Task: inverse folding
């Protein structure tokens, strides 16, 4: 019995020592977490004129808010005033991790170092261990944070006459009494029309962060943004309409009728796209030819399109020139494989040869002229042979069979299918337009429908500018947060379209951001 008691006492002592050790480690880890939390979120301040950052660990937290700091500097300098920024840390920050393959240079870097305690820096032979370096690994981390940006404008009055009240000017805002700042608006535009997140799902996401941003507030904000940016959308449409080469397609969308107006109905989203990646979306309440014909008024050039009859009135001598899509034609013969596998395989093989010529031109980096010459040399003989074969099949295949329908489609579209070989600027198919509509086709499974017709126009305006910005290599949130306020002071609105904005203003915006980083870092 005595031995058992002694063993239990020894076991308890060992457990107590282990528990104490674990408590020490936990306290050390808590200390590290708190230190890093202060670095990322701790309070600090920054003045534009004659100010140097205080020597505190919380300086680094400003790197996460350099955009706000940059905009404050820009506003202060442009309006010749002083700007001071203060930041209060959130009570419950919500970290989110995300791994990627690359480590961009413009992102801030935080280092966590782990070391052995003194007691463990002893070798088994009894000699002390010396530090020989570090085993380093890197990963991308992400912290999504929403904060309240309080804007204070000092007011001054004369004590002598008690009149002449003067208020310091503040930064430009998209909407003076709006709930959402321009950065939040830019984020919402990208989430809704870039990632196709429905308003109700975003409402739940924000609620999980402790924010009350209702779907009605989101929808109303997006409508106001679209109204504000409508002049840019109109200019964008004019630029696309004036191009020599155009791609167009459409996809159905559902419109929810208001109460008392009956059930839902089907509308249409259209895309008009040029070679430089300018996207002009349009929304109509039906697939009537009136929609595309109205949009295409004045267009004179090559137009890649499917065989939709509504375009036919646009293909007139003084109007558009039809360029048919070989991808659509190929699908017809793929559908005929089940009933006529040998004949379908023969036609599909010749179509593959046409696409092989396109890959050769792309891999060789050919220009428009070289590509046009290659097509004349290599593609024309294939087309002539294919046309002769289709003429034979037209008399053999049953008109209503899948093969008969495929042959009939190709025969009716033949002249337009051969147009692409006449000009190296043209494409063999209309896949560019289909890709531009893929987001709407996939996204409608998320948001289901437009609440009303106005929602279709809002989507057309904001999606057009968003996708054009992406094509121009412009970061969309940065673009929207700038143009939403710059549009008030810029007279030449064409400079605010994504391609022109990148050339004219992107460097300016990045310059202010870099100045903010330098002042924050004390450089």
Result:
């Amino acid at each position: 019995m005595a031995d058992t008691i002694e063993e239990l006492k020894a076991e308890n002592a060992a457990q107590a020592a282990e528990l104490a050790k674990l408590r020490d480690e936990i306290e050390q880890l808590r200390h590290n977490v708190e230190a890093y939390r202060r670095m990322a979120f701790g309070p600090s301040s920054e003045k534009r004129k004659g100010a140097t950052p205080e020597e505190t660990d919380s300086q680094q937290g400003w790197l996460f808010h350099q955009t706000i700091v940059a905009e404050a500097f820009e506003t202060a300098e442009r309006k010749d005033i002083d700007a001071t920024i203060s930041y209060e840390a959130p009570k419950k920050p919500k970290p989110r991790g995300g791994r990627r393959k690359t480590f961009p240079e413009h992102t801030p870097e935080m280092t966590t170092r782990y070391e052995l305690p003194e007691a463990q820096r002893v070798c088994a032979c009894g000699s002390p261990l010396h530090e020989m370096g570090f085993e380093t690994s890197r990963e991308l981390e992400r912290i999504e944070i929403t904060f309240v940006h309080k804007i204070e404008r000092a007011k001054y009055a004369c004590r002598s006459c008690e009149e002449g009240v003067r208020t310091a000017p503040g930064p430009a805002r998209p909407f003076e009494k709006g709930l959402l700042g321009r950065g939040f608006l830019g984020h919402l535009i990208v989430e809704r029309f870039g990632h196709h997140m429905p308003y109700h799902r975003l409402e739940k996401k924000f609620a999980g962060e402790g924010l009350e941003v209702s779907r009605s507030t989101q929808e109303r904000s997006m409508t106001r943004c679209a109204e504000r940016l409508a002049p840019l959308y109109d200019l964008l449409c004019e630029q696309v309409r004036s191009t020599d080469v155009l791609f167009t397609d459409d996809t159905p969308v559902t419109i929810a009728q208001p109460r008392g107006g009956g059930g839902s109905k089907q509308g249409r989203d259209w895309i008009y796209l040029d070679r430089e990646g300018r996207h002009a979306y349009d929304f109509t309440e039906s697939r009537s030819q009136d929609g595309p014909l109205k949009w295409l008024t004045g267009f004179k050039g090559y137009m890649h399109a499917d065989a939709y009859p509504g375009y036919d009135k646009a293909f007139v001598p003084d109007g558009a020139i039809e360029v048919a899509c070989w991808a659509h034609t190929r699908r017809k013969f793929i559908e005929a494989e089940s009933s006529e596998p040998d004949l379908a395989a023969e036609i599909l093989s010749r179509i593959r040869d046409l696409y092989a010529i396109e890959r050769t031109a792309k891999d060789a980096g050919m220009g428009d002229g070289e590509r046009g010459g290659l097509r004349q040399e290599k593609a024309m003989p294939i087309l002539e042979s294919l046309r002769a074969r289709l003429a034979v099949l037209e008399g053999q295949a049953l008109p209503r069979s899948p093969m008969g329908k495929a042959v009939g489609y190709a025969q009716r579209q033949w002249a337009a299918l051969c147009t692409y070989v006449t000009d190296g600027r043209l494409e063999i198919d209309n896949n560019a337009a289909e890709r531009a509509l893929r987001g709407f086709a996939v996204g409608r499974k998320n948001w289901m429908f437009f609440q009303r017709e106005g929602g279709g126009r809002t989507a057309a305006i904001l999606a057009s500018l968003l996708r054009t910005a992406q094509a121009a290599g412009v970061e969309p949130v940065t673009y929207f947060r700038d143009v939403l306020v710059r549009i008030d002071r810029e007279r030449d609105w064409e400079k605010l379209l994504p391609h022109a904005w990148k050339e004219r203003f992107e460097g300016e915006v990045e310059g202010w951001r870099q100045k903010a980083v330098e002042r924050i870092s004390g450089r």
